[in-house]
């Protein structure tokens, strides 16, 4: 396909905002689309504040900040995705939501546009099957926080063609990311390894092996991880961790992936992590641990 210049990002939550930021900083025009226009606008304002922090740290100039922000257009109407050469969906981790979005994307985007999903566990082949172009549907799985994390996992569905794969890898490189290719098997590489770690940390807490802090400090310092698994689950969102654990459990059919009852309970209580102000830890309005 011709050079990718305009990208659509669906979902203005923490992942969508991060993807919009790296795309705008790489010089692409970005349509940041959310079902709720106010959410898309507020997310763009928040992205502006993230760019301000980069200016304050002298990582980018004020001109680069202004130019990057001007490339982002917050929208809520799918028709505004018409100019996009590439779309990345970063909606909540629910199959019904993703299938509905990709069905709509088939109708509103150019036929040559590549349709990518940031899903962390749902089948790319299944998502592709609800579109008019399964060969142009691919997984582009960013890590949280997107502007900081170097990796993008690229996942080919069964029908995904080589041109789509190569264009997606090239786009990730424009974002200054390193890519790995993963097969379209639930959880791909990163979450196949990470979610059992987080779930096991929840079981450790559930069984009283240690306090939240003991478990996190134990893994952080004992294994030299940048943060403990419970703290990391708060960053990812406990609802997202549970959704991925459920996909691993159901799709792989092995009880070793069963989600910990404590994780389910936290989600039922609305203690979804940093974004909710409470998860395994509590957070202030700036997202700092209280
Ligand atoms: N957005 C943008 N930048 C951020 C950020 C955010 N949310 N959080 C931290 N940063 C930046 C900081 O500004 C800082 O930048 P400088 O070095 O330029 O000053 C840098 O990252 C380091 O931050 P801090 O000094 O505040 O804190 P830290 O050293 O503890 O790092 C961290 C924070 C980067 C989050 C680090 O703890 C880390 O790497 N944690 C692990 C994150 C991880 O594993 N992510 C993958 C999750 S799995 C996933 O996303 C896949 C999935 O499907 C679930």
In short:
It is built from eleven helices and eight strands.
Q: CATH superfamily name of the largest domain?
A: NAD(P)-binding Rossmann-like Domain
Strand content: 5-15%
Going by helix content, strand content and strand pairing, the class is alpha/beta
Mean pLDDT reading: 97
Query: What is the terminal-to-terminal distance?
Result: 49 Å
Unreliable spans are none
Largest sheet: 8 strands, mixed
Shape by Cα distribution: globular
- Total count of domains: 2
**CATH architectural designation of the largest domain:** 3-Layer(aba) Sandwich
Per CATH, the class of the largest domain reads: Alpha Beta
User: Considering DSSP H and I runs of 4 or more, what fraction of the residues is helical?
Assistant: 40-55%
Strand order of the largest sheet: 3-2-1-4-5-6-7-8
Named CATH topology of the largest domain: Rossmann fold
Bound molecules: acetoacetyl-coenzyme A
Strand tally is 8
The gyration radius over C-alpha positions equals 19 Å
Q: Please work out how many helical segments DSSP would assign.
A: 11
Secondary-structure element pattern, one letter each: EHEHHEEHEHEEHEHHHHH
